[in-house]
Amino acid sequence: MSFVELGLSEELLRAVADSGYNDPTPIQRQAIPSVLMGRDIIGVAQTGTGKTASFVLPMIDILAEGRSRARMPRSLILEPTRELAQQVSENFDKYGKYHKLSMALLIGGVSMGDQLATLEKGVDVLIATPGRLMDLFNRGKIMLNQCSLLVIDEADRMLDMGFIPDIEEICTRLPSPRQTLLFSATMPPPIKKLADKFMDSPRLIEVARPASTNTSITQYVVETAPRSKREVLRSLLGDPQVKNAIVFCNRKRDIKELVDSLKRHRFPVSQIHGDMEQSDRIRELDKFKSGEITILVASDVAARGLDIPGVSHVVNYDVPHHAEDYVHRIGRTGRAGRTGIAYTLATPAEAENLAEVEKLIAQTIPRYTGAQAPEAEPVVLAPVDPVLPAEVAAITTQSHEAAEAAAGERPRKRRRGGRNRKGEAGDADTPVIAAAAPAPVARSEAAPRPAPTPREPESRRPEPRAARPVRDPIRDYRGGRRDEGRRDDRRDRDDGDTFIGFGPEGIPAFLTHKATITR
Ligand code: AMP
């Protein structure tokens, strides 16, 4: 099926063609015609599936008819984070370039003056985070009674962030009937409840990532001792295969310390987390996108759903507390048809969280060993079986079914005929759409270089990291030459990067092979 068959306008088809997209993704194929008909939709889909365009494209055509009025937005898109809101607004710019729709972005951390002025003139699309929207609503700056199209994006994330009461409140302020589109990677019971309460016979669409993207993410667990984490991380990031990487930490306070430590070791690194000003977050993200910095240390909230093409590696500095965050984290790599590698550093204390992750993705993640000869070509470690997003999506499907079973409910049958904004035949008897075909199992081309070593950097790292001698943790641990008066090492000791207390059982196996590497 091509975009032409989806019922989109000429202008939109031109904008899509300008974006270089030839074929709609499974979620776009299934969602766009239904949204154009005016149906409510539940899209069980992760980022990376093309879900944003699946609501932005039909919304543009729907909103092309009609006019906005002062302070009364005609449609509302709720996003859990500022970055996602920003990303969706960029999608409107991209696909709406042949239309004359007005849009306002209401997010915390940016000046309200311009946004209020835009709202005052009337907007077709309002993209907002729930907190800022409620704030303005309560101050009487905005009215929602003309808002007949609502999108709740990343609903499971909204739940994690405690936004569900705000969303319920917002839903009660919107007119009825209206059209509601809800997207979520999983459907835990509170989201199901929200959908039952505020949606009208929604059509359920569940998708895997498009098979055509041939996406694959190779995953490894790197078992380590807590004190060795920074050393292990530096070793992994020092691998020339790492073009760029997002490093996830569980705690915000660890992010700054880790960034400082990596900076001292001359990695081009920055950070992004929820406590930063919006303008700072955007600036740091832009630096990462442009390649000015190649390592971004991030919190889950700030990085959720970010669509940055070409992220070669994801490193989980900690095993996430919530197994589902693992899926979201590693999904930052292996996007848009590329391969990616995800490492998860795991200490014995994190075994339980790791077991939860492996349970969720229904497989054991290979342990990284990385031993090889010095001049060896990239070694494919056995076993290297990438977990494909399609498989991950299958897991979310299971969760959804489990949630439904737990709630003892089946999706409600849609009413006969349904609303049909375009007067087309409805699809009354197909309330549930099956998942798209899983992607073929593909082996990552980007098998990780073994024994990543802090060694001669590539040209993108101009600083003289290479001048530093390769350390041998074993020898260092046994007291051979740990300090030898080197300032850097003294600093390491101060900030916890040291080898002191780096007991033999805590040494990751692959690090013990560094001594054999001469570069
Ligand atoms: P999303 O799931 O909305 O975060 O989109 C993931 C990525 O897929 C984004 O970079 C989109 O620009 C891209 N994309 C969206 N639709 C298509 C399509 N039909 N073909 C190829 N890429 C697409």
Report on the structure:
The chain is α/β, with parallel strands linked by helices. It folds into three domains: 3-206, Rossmann fold (3-Layer(aba) Sandwich); 217-361, P-loop containing nucleotide triphosphate hydrolases (Rossmann fold, 3-Layer(aba) Sandwich), CATH 3.40.50.300; 473-519, no CATH class. It has helices spanning 10-18, 26-36, 51-64, 82-95, 112-121, 130-138, 155-160, 164-173, 189-198, 229-237, 252-264, 278-290, 300-303, 323-330, 351-360, 389-407, 473-477, 487-495, and strands at residues 41-44, 75-78, 103-106, 125-128, 149-152, 179-184, 203-206, 216-223, 245-248, 269-272, 295-298, 313-316, 339-346, 432-433. An eight-stranded parallel beta sheet has the order 3-4-2-5-6-1-7-14. A six-stranded parallel beta sheet has the order 8-13-12-9-11-10, sandwiched between helices. Helix 2 (26-36) packs parallel to helix 3, helix 3 (51-64) crosses helix 4 and helix 14 (323-330) packs across helix 15 (351-360). The longest helix is centred in the C-terminal third of the chain and has 19 residues, at 389-407. Residues 209-215 and 371-519 have low confidence and may be disordered. Adenosine monophosphate binds next to helix 3.
